[in-house]
Amino acid sequence: MNINLKALVAKYDTPLYLYDFDYIAGRYTELKEAFEGKKSLISYAVKSNSNLAIIRHLANLGAGADCVSIGEVKRALAAGVKPYRIIFSGVGKRDEEIREALESDILMLNLESEAEMKRVELMAKELGKEARISIRVNPNIDPQTHPYISTGLHENKFGVEIDMAKRMYIYAKKSEFLNPVGIHFHIGSQLTQLDPIREAAMIVADLVRSLRRIDIDIKFFDVGGGIGVVYSDERTITPEEYAGAVFEAIKGLDVTIVCEPGRYMVANGGIFVTKVLYEKENDGKRFVIIDGAMNDLIRPSLYNAYHRIDAYENTNEHKTAADVVGPICESGDFLGKNVYLPPLEHNDLLVVQSAGAYGFTMASNYNTRGRAAEVALVGGEDHCIRQRESFEDQIRLELACDTSWQEK
Ligand code: LLP
User: Are both 108 and 160 inside the same structural domain?
Assistant: First the structure.
């Protein structure tokens, strides 16, 4: 991003999330074009960055939405995503969520257990509707990624085994209130190897073929999300390689390919900007204390994830290693360890790279810290897309309760 960060910080202050909307549009187009020649739907994984402006931006380009709560479904609808492009996934949907999703007439509910299917059938019956469903298959493939974001093994809580999936499809086909239109798998996130995806797609496509033989006609082949991105110097999967692997698996099948990328669309379209508060040394170890923290960007603390951190100015001065830490009262509150940085002064800016995915969405109010502002950059112009959270915003729901029982 070629931007005047100082001017933006003067306007919006820090900590600040900045998103390059042109980059995000480019990512969408690149992926969509890789699927050219086949019917495809790119359903953006809202969980990766659920700001309405981002969802709207992608919806305007034709994207759908992959949602894991009714809240996300409502966000997608509010942002203008067409209901027939919305998918509702997740292992634990509440009755009200199922009901509301059915009433909204979304493309399909992704089911992850037999018990859930029975619940959806009941809700659909009560509403006098037919629920379009897909079943998440767990192909028992090791995606070779971080264990916390690996989902395609039987030891993970996600999806159902092939045999169970088959039984569920047969049941759904007979039900008056279920319409099995799709099949789904998602083996993990930040996938940098193609083989696990190829293998999983083959297994699931074979299941589609065997379902077809018993007259169950799957229309949507949902390959999940998970395409890895570059945080450091990793080699990852290109859209063409990805699409190629899917094409190969579905050879001979007349299906619409659905994919649910989150990180791929937004991770490298976002930066997190923070100010230096102080420098200090403890027994020769250098710490740079900043005004951003683990409540803003938890990935380093939670997964030991790497985010490149750059000083905005003085980049030619002699750099030494430092831990970049926030003001939160935990040793795990760091955004980077052993980061080579020039000497820094109060109010110097640091840029945390690749922060567009699972940054703001995983932010919290820990230590009563207001969540950061979010700003979009579009064709060189900046637009606020979420105001900085104030102290009043944070305590509003506490003050909304009756407090008289504590008053003297
Ligand atoms: N579809 C399903 C069913 C998913 O569970 C996920 C992510 C996605 C799509 C999108 O995956 P993506 O394309 O973004 O890899 N908080 C973690 C990532 C958790 C991902 C959870 N599921 C992180 O910060 O790395």
Answer: yes
